[in-house]
User: Fold this.
Amino acid sequence: MTSDEDVLGLARLGADIEAELETPLFKYVLGRMVERVDELKEKLVDLCPDQQASEIRRTQAEIKRFDCMQEDIEQIINDGRQAYREIVEAEQVEDL
Assistant:
C-alpha cells in the first residue's frame, strides 16, 4: 500500500471503530469493563498483603490489561481522526 492508501485505511478503521463505540452492545461491554475494574480495585483493597501476594499480583495484572485495552481503543480512534484530518486538509489543498 502507498502512504495515501495507508492513511485512508487508518481513517476508515478509526471511523468504523468510532461508529462501533456508539452501539448499545459496545456501551454495555465498556460499562461492564469499568464495573469489573471497580470490583477489582475494591478486591485489591480487601486483600491482606501478607496472605494474598499472588492474588494481589493477579488482580493488578487484570486491572492493567483493562487499562491497556482502553488505551489501545483510544489510540486507534485518535489515529483515525488524525488520518481523516490529513485527508480533508489534502483535499482542501488540491481544491485550491
